[in-house]
Structure formats: structure tokens, C-alpha cells
Amino acid sequence: MAQAHHDHGHVVTVQPRDTVKIWKIWKTMIILAVLTAIEFILAFAMDRGHLLTSIFVVLTFAKTFFIVGEFMHLKYEVKVLILSIVIPMLFIVWLIVAMLAEGSSVETFRDIWGMLKGE
After folding, report:
1. How far apart are CA 73 and CA 30, in angstroms?
2. Which of 72, 78, 86, 115 is most buried as measured by Cβ atoms within 10 A of its Cβ?
3. Does pTM top 0.85 for this prediction?
């Protein structure tokens, strides 16, 4: 039994380049590269501490929001949708910072308690 060849009429057409979309991709890449370069330079130029960590967190959030806005196309959506994603993320970051601070204070309290007990 011979196999029959079925032609469904699918035709592949090549679309012309969309220079606006290509420019947006390059613009996104340049912005992210500049922010990353700033982080890289600050990592070697500044002393370690809370200020450097805070700058890194702010720059990381800036890159995150830019990536989410561009690549998930949320920049073009209603503001409520954007806020429904951003606000829970901020609460999660706040939770992580609070847990780190709490853990540090518990460790400090244990050290003080140990000194008071004479250990």
C-alpha cells in the first residue's frame, strides 16, 4: 500500500525586518549592560558595607523591573497588573531582610546571654 502525499498548502513567508523592534532589543541590551557595568565598577571601587549592598539591591531591582516590563510586556499592561506582581515581590524581599535581621539579633542575644551566664 502506497502512502499518499497530502499538501495542505502551508506556505512559509519571510517578513521584512522590523527596525523598531530591533532597536528596542538593542536599547534594552544597552541599558542592562550599563547598569551591570555600574555594579561591576562599584564592586571594585567601594568598600564593603551597607551602602554598597543597598546600591546593589536598588540596581538589581531597577534591572528586574526593566526586564519584567520589557520581556514580559508588562510595560504595556494596566497598572493594576504591574502592581499585583511588584507589591508581593517587595513584601517577599522585606520578609527576607526581616528574617536576616532577626537571625542576626538572635545570634547577638545568645552571645550576650552566654557572657552573662559566664560561658
Report:
1. 18
2. 86
3. no
